[in-house]
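>> Question from a student workshop board

For tomorrow's exercise we were told to take the sequence and the ligand below, predict the bound structure, and bring the output to class. My setup keeps failing. Could a helper post the expected result so I can at least see what it should look like? The ligand is adenosine-5'-triphosphate.
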Amino acid sequence: MSTPDGNAAPVNTTSKMDKLVALCRRRGFIFQSSEIYGGINGFWDYGPLGVELKRNLKEAWWRDIVRCAPNGPDGKPVDMVGLDCTIIMNRKVWEASGHASGFNDPMVDDRESKQRFRADQLFGLYVGPHTGDAVADRAALLAAIAAGTAPVITVIASTSGEAAEVLERQGKKFLKERNVPLQISEIAADFVLLKERGEPRTGLLAPVGADLLRLRPMEVPSPFTQKLAVLTEPRQFNLMFQTHTGAIQDESSMTYLRPETAQGIFANFRNVTDTSRVKIPFGIAQIGKAFRNEVTPRNFTFRSREFEQMEIEFFIHPSQAAEWYAFWRDSRFKWWQSIGLTSANLQLREHDRDELAHYAREGAGTSDIEYRFPFTAPGFGELEGVAHRTDFDLRQHAQFSGIGDKLKYFDQQRNERYFPHVIEPSAGADRGTLAVLCEAYHDDPARPSGVVMKFHPRMAPIKAAVFPLVDKDGMPEIAENIFNDLRKTWNVEMDVKQNIGKRYARMDEAGTPFCFTVDTQTLTDQTLTVRHRDTLAQERIAASQIRNFLAKKIDL
Ligand code: ATP
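>> Workshop helper replied:
Here is what the output should look like for this input. Compare the format with yours to find the bug.
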């Protein structure tokens, strides 16, 4: 697979994920939270390299969105200001936003094993006869699924790609443990070739769906045992973490940890318009923690219970929705490419109307910027959602706070008072970091490290390393001077220990794009070798030019 610019898409597979998770642990990118106590499900810590990587991502976003906002459709920089709100807010905020009553995932319990899972994560392997004609088989199966007559074997997964992986990897064991008399002979995306006592059968992997569970729960087997009639109907489960403020823990002191940063922006809409000179169209941007008590946290940091969001609420006149929606959708997609997600593993997906959130159905649209993570392949997982939220949130806050029409915006140019519409590009900093890690990971048996992290220089946790070739002849002193100068601007490392090959290997694993080596020639002509991580090319560069060289390569 290759992109228009010819970049090969890194092949994302589960084994790659296992290797990446091991590298993250070994080199200090990401650790399990509270590891010495056995960890805590859904929480992750960023180690010395990981914290630099994640900060680089957030700082690039802040610079490109707030300080140096992109040019809008009219070619002029868009108006954007920043905000930093509290995690705990008056709980009425969550009543107004709909989260207190509606931020629910339908959950299903297995009565026997007591395991709980999300209804939308139940995938079925529907089984039908085999005629040798894939098209006819598929049509017959779809009809049988609709009629409820196709036997089904259930798997828990986020996408049909992940379901296929579960079956591919654990297929034999999975079916044997559950007493299913089938053998899997081939899996192609969602289409499966099976055998039952030598007889060929076909199978289709598809979501079971909350509707089917609600209508005919008795016919849906447990994903844990394949036993029938043990699943409950889907029930709502609120994802917000509750907490209390003050000394007395009762109903009146109860509030929540925010499940998104967006509502803090809406709650401050008037403060911002009253105190800054922004005029519609303008945006408010925020980076901050969000908390969701996800039922099945999984896939490393992809679905965590504590994570960071990078959100923009862009306020517009209702008539401008289509134009600004298209602008942000395309601009955000390009941004992810600009920080290194250049392969075909990145895609933009426009939602079908029936997928849209309640507030967005009437709007200009919703799209997801998605990445093909190793654990979603061949499917994709959401990195960022871009949605036209209409004026839903401001209207809700106007009503619930009692402020009413005072929350409307007065547009001097139009001489009109109205609730602005909102285009919201909402991204995850942790999912972004994970996508950057996945994209960077490259096996390379020719290198001593066996692996190289090809981070975009802007993202790389260590921008450059300075090595004295040997620990004598004045070389360490020269290296130290250069190191001390560079570290004022960038995160750089100096390494004197071990042979040069091992030092390069460490930097390849950390994804350091440039290594500068002070050698014997430096002593006579003040030049150093610079080694390029991706091409392994080496060239000589004057010591006095290193700072310019890095500035050009990094601060693109
Ligand atoms: P999903 O469908 O995967 O649960 P969502 O559509 O609920 O995600 P949003 O509410 O749109 O997500 O949140 C915006 C962004 O926040 C997502 O695109 C994602 O990058 C990030 N995000 C949401 N939930 C999580 C989570 N549990 N862990 C890590 N990041 C998350």
